[in-house]
């Protein structure tokens, strides 16, 4: 873990421990974060300034950095272990959609004064659990004091066979449009937290909250898509918005059929009447499912991949000449789409 | 530039443009940041989810992430172009001290509402200038809204010949201790800003402020140190603190001679009587010079490297068996050292 000397002009404490009864920076790194780097050769036990990644013959290195900010991307009341896992999984999800296999990550953690050792222990515990699940290690990073919200920046690092990365720009007219998992669950989970909306059952509520708090990066499925998919993206801004990114970058039009957008039983319980729920789901974000395009000739291979990786996958539409994204009803009529996704500003 | 969908539970604006008269996120990326990625093959013009780094035969990939936070590491009044350059250069300085050659970086930018387009233009302009100076490109990143301070996280990416990275842990008894440039200038520059302390001359003041605001990563010199230095670190926490990291990781004692610590003419003007100024300089941070150890047998090669790269270098002490860092006066007596550097908490 690097040490960046803060030339603090501000009111932050210059000594340790601070009022939150935390140990100092170096002790914190040694106690909480060095164990997460124990098994990674190029991490040097977080006792050096940088991390090193050995070359893998025939492989490209894939990099993605992604920030999670308190009160923007998570709530202070969220469990620390789900906050750290979400920060990590969001970045892993980008690698998944590109067909890359993650191997390591860097962590930059800006901490205000309030998180105490119990919070930090749980935060690191979430990372440890996900490292074991995904076979990755922390290899470097940075901790800093901040007068603002907790800000967690993960740089995920992975590999993909040279040239095999699945881009956004390869969709071609005639391709089919696919999506993994179910759409809109995380958006409903956030609505439950924000608006206190009631889900019809405790089971549905728990499912939707879990989908919001701990997304599932579709890593094994994504890796299998190399050579099958012509374009792919992980759904973070929302199904329609992210398909829009593929349409724009590929120079094509994408049409999806509302009735084919996969919705969970919990979301149907929560959202009621189907068409309205589909529109909400397709405009919400944070799904971290993979939307992708592929020729119909790859259908069997894709279904086989879905079976092998136990990943639900659905065909929801097709690629045409033109531009933009449209949603059609059962009769082929276009359904007006409102807000198409989230912009950060 | 990735788009991480903010599942905003907070009070942030959900639409664009915002009150600061900035364009929306995607337009901002296209206008300001995509040009910074134009020349980098694996950046895809910031139109995809990840960045890709092609393998370089025989080279290791070196990674360092580092955050710069408003009111912690810089002042809001600082010029935007120097803020972005400092964020970039701090991470490059770590690569320099390890002997690595930078090639690219990722940028995660958390922005509150106040920076307007003029500020953002200047911020990107600073990055463009440094990209040209150091031969690197932006290859990916992330922008997010934040209710807190501007938080800039740079992940610097470089290469070093396989196994040639200069670690912290190789210092051996008998080695000499070296440092590049001059020490304490940035600390004095910060003191001028914080305390309104007066420098004796406008020239000295400008020099010290420039050293605080825009550090110089010693990249060419650092690359030349591969095979010469036994251990190295960039001085961010302070000369004594950072030599302490080498001493601890290498399992040695380091003794430096106060009169040999190189001080700039401006710092001597600012700090007055020499011994007190040396102590201040050795405890201040943000120097981003390289402190390193090497056998005396490499002295000629090091001086030759210094000449070729036009880098001032000084011998300031030696490595002994034992532990810790001591500062000696001209008679070999130990000078008591107070606070040994900065901890972030």
Would you mind describing this structure in some detail?
By secondary structure, chain A is of the alpha+beta class. Chain A has two domains: 25-47 and 54-161, 2-Layer Sandwich (60s Ribosomal Protein L30, Chain: A), CATH 3.30.1330.10; 176-333, Phosphoribosyl-aminoimidazole Synthetase, Chain A, domain 2. Chain A contains ten helices and twelve strands. Chain A has helices at residues 25-33, 80-97, 117-134, 185-195, 202-213, 219-225, 239-250, 265-271, 274-283, 299-308; strands at 51-53, 59-69, 101-111, 137-145, 151-161, 176-180, 231-234, 253-257, 290-294, 313-320, 324-328, 334-335. In chain A, the strands form two sheets. In chain A, strands 7-9-6-10-8-11-12 form a seven-stranded mixed β-sheet. In chain A, strands 2-5-3-4 form a four-stranded mixed β-sheet. In chain A, a hairpin with a 5-residue loop joins strand 11 and strand 12. The longest helix of chain A has 18 residues, at 80-97. Chain A is globular, with a radius of gyration of 21 Å. Chains A and B meet through helix 1, strand 1, strand 2, helix 2 and strand 3 of A and helix 1, strand 1, strand 2, helix 2 and strand 3 of B. Strand 2 of chain A pairs antiparallel with strand 1 of chain B, so a sheet runs across the interface.
């Amino acid at each position: 873990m690097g040490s960046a000397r803060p030339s603090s002009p501000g009111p932050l404490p210059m000594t340790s421990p601070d009022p939150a009864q935390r140990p100092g920076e170096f002790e914190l790194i040694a106690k909480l974060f060095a164990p997460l780097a124990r098994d990674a050769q190029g991490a040097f036990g977080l006792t050096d300034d940088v991390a090193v990644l050995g070359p893998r013959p025939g492989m490209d290195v894939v990099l993605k950095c992604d920030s999670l900010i308190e009160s923007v991307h998570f709530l202070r009341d969220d469990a620390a272990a789900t906050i750290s896992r979400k920060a990590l999984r969001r970045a892993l999800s980008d690698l998944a959609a590109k067909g890359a296999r993650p191997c390591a990550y860097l962590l930059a953690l800006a901490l205000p004064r309030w998180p105490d050792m119990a919070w930090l222990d749980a935060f690191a515990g979430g990372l440890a659990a996900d490292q074991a699940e995904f076979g990755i290690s922390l290899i470097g990073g940075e901790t800093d004091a901040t007068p603002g919200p907790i800000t967690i920046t993960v740089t995920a690092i992975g590999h993909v066979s040279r040239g095999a990365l699945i881009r956004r720009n390869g969709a071609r007219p005639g391709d089919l449009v696919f999506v993994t998992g179910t759409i809109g669950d995380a958006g409903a989970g956030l609505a439950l937290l924000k608006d206190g909306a009631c889900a019809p059952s405790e089971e549905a509520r728990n499912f939707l909250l879990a989908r919001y708090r701990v997304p599932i990066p579709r890593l094994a499925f994504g890796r299998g898509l190399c050579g099958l998919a012509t374009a792919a993206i992980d759904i973070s801004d929302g199904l329609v918005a992210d398909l829009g990114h593929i349409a724009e970058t590929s120079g094509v039009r994408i049409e999806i059929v509302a009735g084919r957008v996969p919705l969970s039983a919990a979301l149907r319980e929560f959202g009621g009447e189907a068409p309205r729920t589909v529109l909400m789901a397709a405009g919400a974000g944070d799904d971290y499912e993979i939307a992708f395009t592929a020729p119909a000739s790859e259908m069997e291979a894709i279904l086989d991949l879905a079976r092998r990786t136990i990943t639900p996958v659905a065909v929801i539409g097709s690629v045409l000449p033109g531009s933009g994204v449209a949603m059609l009803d059962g009769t082929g009529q276009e359904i007006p789409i409102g807000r198409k996704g989230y912009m950060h500003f």
